[in-house]
Every structure is written in C-alpha cells, then in structure tokens.
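Exam review. A common question shows you a sequence with its structure tokens and asks you to describe the fold in words. Practice with the pair below. Do the first one on your own.
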Amino acid sequence: MKILVTVKEVAEVDDEFRISGLDIDEASLEYDLNEWDDYAVEEAVQISEANDDVEVVTVTVGPERAEETVRMALAKGADRAVRVWDDALEDAQFLDVDTKAELLAAVAEEEEPDLVLSGVQAGDDANGATGVALADRLGFEWAAVVNSLDLDSDAGV
C-alpha cells in the first residue's frame, strides 16, 4: 500500500518584523511545515507502523527553501518525499488552487497511491480547497476534518 501526503511550507512572521515594499521582509519570515499537514503525515506514519508493506510518500510544491519542510516530514517517518518546482512558477504561495491541484495530481498519477491524505487547510491563508480539488482531479473520494482513521486493507481503502 502507498500513502501520498500533501504538505506545504507556511511562513510565520517574527514578533518584530520589517516591511519591504508592500510585503513583509523575507528576513522576518520563518518557514515551517503546515500544522494541519503535520497531522496528516503523523496519521500516515501511524498507519505504516501498524501495517505491513506501507510506503509513505510526501509531496510539496515549493522552491528550494521547501527542502526543509520535506526533511521535517521525512524526520517524522515518511519514507520518501517529492518536491515539485520550476522557476517559471515563481512563488508557490501565489499559485491558484487549480494549478496546485494539477501539479499534485501529476505526482499522484506517477506514484499511484492507494490513499491520499492532506491537511484540512493551510495555516498561512486558511484555504482548504487544495485537498478537495486534488481528490476531484484524481476521481478519489474526499472527507474533511478526519480525526481518526481505521484502515481495513482487506476491504479496500
């Protein structure tokens, strides 16, 4: 069984920050794994630990600095990670939901997961549309705000 977990890096602003033009100065930002995606990674790892032959793969869309987010997911127990990026994308944080879902769907089609987990929303913009848009593109069922998951691999996911 393969579980694909979507993860996002989110910016946290220092208590004391500087403005640069119309934005917060990059030096005042610290990036971290989205809290809601952290829960999804943890659930996938727990499923992997409780069952034989389960691979956990995380996927993120982001620039080189997102490598730290990828490493956080790997440190929590994910087996592999995929980072999608092209300089033509410029800033992942400004990509619309459809574009993010299209990029993530391409990875999912390549990975062929049995289950896809995502956080309920992003901590930086409170947008919760990417997971449902991805499920729609893949033809997967979708459930929101899942607090617990009992896996019955004999009956299917």
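Now try the second one, then compare your answer with the model answer below.
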Amino acid sequence: MAEIAFIGAFAGRLRPAETIFQSLLLLCPGNPHVQIGLALVWTICGKSMEAAALLDRIDATTSAERGLVTVCSAIALRDSGHRSAADRMFSDAIAQGGAAAEWARGLAQSGKE
C-alpha cells in the first residue's frame, strides 16, 4: 500500500496518498516507518513544514530508524527553504553512520550542485 501511495504522491495525488498512510497509521499506530512515509508524501507534495513537524514527533527506537528520520527531516527542511538546518541534519546523519549516512552524503552533495 505504501508503494501505491508514493506513486500517487509523485503523480500529484496528495489526498489519496495521505488517505493510504492515514489508514496504515490506524492499522499500525506509532509505527515509525508509516509516519516517515506520510512525512515523505507531504514533502513530495509541498507540505515540508508539516512533514518536518511530524518527523520531530517520531519515536525512533533503533539507530537505523533514527538515521532515516534524520535524513528525511533534512530533506523536509531543505525543501522548505531551511538550508542551514538541513545541512546540519545531513551532517548529523552522516556522523551516525549506517545506511542513512550514505544516503545523507549523496543528498547533501546533490543539494550543493
């Protein structure tokens, strides 16, 4: 379902994409991956500040989840015009290591080109 929501979001169909993730949240309350997905949909559709606020509230329990939340927060901040804060978040994600660090490294560089 999440994949379908992302396809809808990239096609500009915000409401159906949000509805899918809101439904997933009802089925899996507190699931950080579902919350991250909703935040990414909001970022894709131009609601970056709402996405950043949601990401701030996520209770990530593993280092991998924390890294993913940090990278997604940086993306939302950069998309909403807060480049300095986004750069700090990308640096934090890189310092955390793991898979998110590689993603953050690539995204941080792409934002400077």
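Model answer, second protein: The first helix runs from residue 2 to 10. The mean pLDDT is 91. Full marks require stating both points clearly.
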